[in-house]
Amino acid sequence: MENRSIEALEIINNRDKYQDDSSRLLQAIKYIKNTIIGNTKKKLEFIDNGAIALFINLLLNEKNQDILIQVTCVLGSFSCKLERGALDICKTPNALDRLISLLSHDNQKMVESSARTIKFILGSKPQNSNHHAFNHINSFIYGAEGIRLLTSLLKHNESIQETAIIIIGQGCEPLINNRREELNTYQTQLLKSGAFDSIFSFLAPSKSKLQEQCLVAVELLTRDNATVCQHLVNRSPDYVELRLIVHLAKSQSPRTKLLAATIICNIDQTKCLPPPFSPVMTKLLPMIVRLMSPQTCASPTGTGHESGSSMMMNGSDTIPAGGSGGTSNNNAHLGNIEEEQSIREDIPAFLARVVSESEELQRVAAECESLIKLVGYIRDRKSSNKLLENALTAIAVLCSTREDSRRQVAESKAIPIIVQLLDSSQPSIKAAACRCIKSLSRSIKQLRTFLYDSAVGQPFPKLIVDPSLEVRVNALASICNLVIDFSPMKQEMIDSGVMKKLVEYLLDGQCEHQVRLNSAWALKNMLFMADVPIKEALLKEISLDNLATLTRETNPAISEQILSLFRNLLYKDSTNIITDEHGLLLIRLVEQLINNPTYSTNDAVIKQALFVVCNLASNKEIHRNQIITSPIFQKIIYYLENSNNHEIKITSIWCLTNLVKFEDITKEQRIKKIRDNGCIDIVNMMVEGSNEDLKIRSKELLKSFSQN
Amino acid sequence: MEWRDITIQDLERMISKEDWENKLDEVQVSKNDLNNLVMNYLIIQGYKEAAEMFQNESGTKATVDLISIVDRMAIRSAIQRGDIEQGIEIVNDLNPEILDTNPQLYFHLQQQKLIELIKKGMISEALTFAQEELAPQCEENHKFLEELEKTISLLAFDDIAKSPLSSLVEASQRQKTASELNAAILVSQSHDKDPKLPTILKLLQWAQNNLDDKLTFPRLNINNNAELSTIDNNSDSDSMIE
């Protein structure tokens, strides 16, 4: 450390000596300030020499306002883009309290400087950091007092407003992905405090920098929150606010355009977009996709700001940019490149979000060549990790339902690249590539051709045991399609030991819910129309004891898949793989299940349970007789009379049909029992009903009776 | 230019000065917009007194606290006379965020400081400074490293002024650094980096050049008291804006 720096720290440390001469102290502080600003190496040097403790001491004890302003400023710089600085300040809760109390100071400069420091601390705090030192600042921004203070800062000067808006955004960001309820509460509180309205009021007078920050905040505050979206839409007559956002979505600046479009997307997805605006997204989407081509991004007008006066223009593509006298700036371009890069990363993420729930928008996006551009990004070796991840995610969404889009991706020879990216070093890229494979493999044609040719199955045995949960979950979801009956990879997947792993996940109650659900789903698909050896292999993996464990599953979604798995296992079992014991166990399971209040109203689970009964009834006499004497039989009659669900009724009819259809010694007794319970009358009523399938099945059943 | 006879078609493609002026008169331009355009130029170029005067006389409200112009100009003049530290001090007082969040600008200021040391012949100080201050910043940015290497190689020349890198030590380099800093301050104050007026004049120039291919019309000669040229005197099409 240089002598002057040591000297400056000395002066601060012995400030009592200089009480009469505050200018020396001020000078020393300003020297440190000007040394560290912009210079991470110097910041670390000072931190190593105990500077933060010295400055916190000043912050807590100094009375002189000029000095205090400089102190907050230095603490801000220590925490700017430096996690260690932010952490060190947060470790002293008093320091944070003092900074917070300065937000209510009379001196604007003091407020400005303290707010900025809090902003820097939040900006350097790693997202989702669980370090307890950050608890205090979190309870400030999410607490009632913090919300009140931040809202009051929006009434100060422009610079303070901007800082407050950024802090509010920083409060929302960590909640976006996995903490929806907390986000919703925070958004709604900021709506009630008036912060949302204040931020919105800064949008109209278009001062480029503040406007952009406002758009960021409005986007975060409207995300997944119908209350806030509804408020925005209905705030003034004639949709003034919404029309402003639509206007901004047509701005010259790509960032402004994208943010405004995202806000409209938020409003659309919370079902708050009023009918006159419903075609807006269809029109905006191609405009946003156009921003994706590198040429548009590089044009000199690409980052033009909306001007303050309506007559002024942003120049045109063919006019040479810049070079106007003293302010010409040859370096501005580099800033633009960063901006372009971040825009390029954000557009695919936007695309994925906006089209996710609308097939119509998926079509619009596909028709304006978005897939070609996205494939271009994943092909480009220079693409950043973020861009790769977002482009893959967008491809996955665009191909989730449209065969045309899958074909387009396959024909652009992108599948080998996607398969390669399954092997990326970045978990988020691997997971996104898995999502792509899942969408593409929904097409039998792609599965049999391009996907098979690219050896898509090979990486999966490794992917389903990946250390990253996100990768495991997405890999298991893709496997569901790769192991289905008509998949050419099915045998390969089974040979590679995938089944063993899936059973292991399913049986492990400690395992994450999503992993178990996807495993059950994949096993179900694997057993669909499966050959005897596959069924045998599964029963070898699941012992009888484990089968009993599975029947005690408490999660309805997983239970549904397990039942469906049994249904596939039992289907047309002519080789006696399913022993008497297996069958009786399964009948007991269904008995428990249909009488369990948790499931009795869950039609999806009930339906699968009935299919299990139905398939059991088609296999063995002993099981048929067990069913007809169990409470299941009474329940079937109950469903026929009372259920509102046609599928459940049809499945019930199937069960009865199988009980009377198969020739065996005890057949007559079963028919008698069914007749005695008044089933014929009930089924006769079904024949008169309006549901065609139900009619046909009922007639078939009556025919079986009359033949006997 | 080759001489050829004027044909009927040529005459049809001509617009007289009178017709042109009539057409120009038809276009409504608001006085307010024009005043804003002037104010925008004065503020961004840093003419504080002119802006004050203009504000008083035209009633056009300045979009920014005019005192901030003084700071901006003080920073500019500090950099232009080579006092980089003074410049940094005022910027950090004005807004400490600018240099903390703009690594490229910070690097260029440090680079300018290095150039000033070399110019003063303080070789060992320059080397220490480059090693201690600039080199760490280059670790993450390849472009910075290139620029640093170029600056350091100034030391290899006996007569820098005659070296191929002489542009680094000229006043224009200080001006460049000062402009970059000025632009960053303007952006931080929600201002455009460049005034709008020159862009509009460029647009005019471009439109006139395009129109030249289709019509003969009285051009506005920007470097010539902004007079309309007459039809027979339109050869002066290379007029420059600055």
TrEMBL record, chain A:
Signal peptide: none annotated. GO terms for cellular component: cytoplasm; GID complex; nucleus. Keywords: Cytoplasm, Nucleus, Repeat. Transmembrane segments: none annotated. One of its GO terms (biological process) is proteasome-mediated ubiquitin-dependent protein catabolic process. The keyword Lyase does not apply. It is found in: Cytoplasm; Nucleus. Gene3D superfamilies: Leucine-rich Repeat Variant (1.25.10.10). SUPFAM superfamilies: ARM repeat. The keyword GTP-binding does not apply. This is Armadillo repeat-containing protein. It comes from Cavenderia fasciculata (Slime mold). The lineage of its organism: Eukaryota, Amoebozoa, Evosea, Eumycetozoa, Dictyostelia.
UniProtKB/TrEMBL annotation, chain B:
PROSITE patterns: CTLH, LISH. This is UPF0559 protein. Residues 68-125 form the CTLH domain. The lineage of its organism: Eukaryota, Amoebozoa, Evosea, Eumycetozoa, Dictyostelia. Transmembrane segments: none annotated. It comes from the Eukaryota.
